[in-house]
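Notes from the 1:1 (GR / supervisor)

We went over the backlog. Supervisor wanted to see one worked example end to end before approving the batch request, so GR pasted a single chain during the call. The sequence is below; no edits were made to it. Supervisor asked that the structure be written out right there so they could see what the output format looks like.
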Amino acid sequence: MRQGSICRTPSIFAALVAAAGLAAAPLAAQEALAFSDGELERGQRLYQAHCGRCHGVLGMGGEGPGLAVSRLPRAPDHAAVIDVIRNGIPGTGMPGLRATVLPDEEAALVAAHVISLREAQLVEIPGDPERGRRIFETTGVCYSCHIVEGRGVGIGPELTGIGMRRGPGYLRASLVDPSAELPVFRSGARSGFARYLPLRAVTRDGTVYEGMRANEDAFTVQLITGTGSIVSLRKADLAELEKRFGHSLMPATAGLSSEDIDNLIAYLASLGG
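Structure output shown during the call:
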């Protein structure tokens, strides 16, 4: 949806801006004038219903990135937020919502609420990012599964820019209990499957493969082995396929102090700015 059809009250919006002498005001401040308190409250309810599970009901992030930030790189204004809501972001976990799920008027209200989150009180993340970086680099474990800026092995999720994709609460939960909630690959608003699920596959000739699930369909399954190589297997050729739901190859942080965990989360949250 393009800017010309964002809001049903463009003439009222223009009149308010002209009357208040705000033609040169920041875009976000101007956009806020186009919606009443009642419309923003409705937008908040719609946001919580459609977006809160991933981005947090307060916009502080979770499985998806936090939205209570001064600027969203992919959606700097109201029109761009609507475009992301409608079309999603290819290559990420952000799906698009069709007009049959979220009508245009409601999408505009959700976008207005997202813009209003810029004024929200941000939660301070405890910990020292630099100390967290040293922990990440010296444990000998993190780089054996994760890639950061080209360094490491990609058995688990790449963490370059993870701070832009996940909220601090989700990062903490993933560190303390890695098996609690695996990342989800989504191709639509309601579809998806757990990624990085530990698999053990045995072919009919007795060859055993173990690793993380990268993808799966009705006929094939792809997994990433401990060396980082990708193996694609036809299910018809398998004698056994074990999916270890509720498990993760990532070790828990039992050996780290609470201060170390805070520092590590601060470092991860800083990746991607």
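Supervisor's comment: The beta strands are 147-148, 151-152, 184-185, 193-194, 198-203, 208-216, 220-225, 230-234, 238-243.
Batch request approved.
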